[in-house]
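User: Can you help me understand a structure? I only have the sequence.
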Amino acid sequence: METVVSGIRSTGNLHLGNYYGALQNFIKMQSEYNCFFFIADLHSLTTHPTPADLHTNVKQVLVEYLAAGIDPDKATIYVQSDVPEISELYLYLNMNAYLGELERATSFKDKVRANPDNVNAGLLTYPVLMAADIIIHKATKVPVGKDQEQHLEMARTFGNRFNRLYNHDYFPEPYAFSYSDNLVKIPGLDGKGKMGKSEGEGNAIFLGDTPEAIRKKVMRAVTDGGPTLENQTKPQEIQNLFDLMKVVSSADTVAHFDNLYNTCSIRYGDLKKQLAEDMIIATAPIRDRINAIAGDAAYLSKVAQHGADKARESAAKTIREVREIIGFRKF
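Assistant: Let's start by predicting it. Here is the structure, written out as tokens:
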């Protein structure tokens, strides 16, 4: 089976965008590919979390991975820092990554503009660590969004450069992979772009949110003054609400509110109440599993250890061979 690798930064709770945009596909992939799904706690160090926050966030993502349906007996779920071979490969790849190409990375330039007082070396070499995450398992398929495609291109660059430098066809080229032709893009509640954690708490519906929290967030979602012409084009903030409804509500419900909008008789309060209740129903099974798993420390420890062992078996083989290719020899 081909190998798939994907990770998510341990920076807090997973939301509907993570679930419908990625996790649902992961659940399908795990039965058909050799899947490695990791929690990127090393990457999160660029934002300097406290030790307590770091551990809490890693645990939360692990719990929610499991609650969403990722099966540790089918896929390898592991914490990035539990596999020190990744850091070793990161070091080797850094030796052949050049300042100019790293400074030109779009994500690095964006981070510098957003946080000029925290331009650390980890941000600069973020694509190198991401490359190590991927090629340590010789992955050929990587589920990534548009915002990560440049990083994936750089992963191919670093792997190919290693192959050329040491005249050894070792690392395969990883490519972007979507299990579905219909990529689901989940908009946020702020009336602008996609749902995300960095846009503020009110923009995202988290998988573990209580019904009360979901209702409160949805009722605060951005709207306008309502349609003034029949069948007029919906502005983005209203289209976002309908796009969310298409994901969690029945087709009849969507058609009902679409008709109300097109006839200028819609009441946004009714739309939001319906959307909130449908979100509560859609997330209920995951929320119940989150609450059940979160308190089972023995189970979480077992899953994390099992995943670390499987991931290290794969990574250790790569590092042994990479050391041999580079020229490290024992006396």
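Now, to help you interpret it: DSSP finds 14 helices and five strands in the chain. The longest strand covers residues 3-9. Let me know which part you'd like to focus on.
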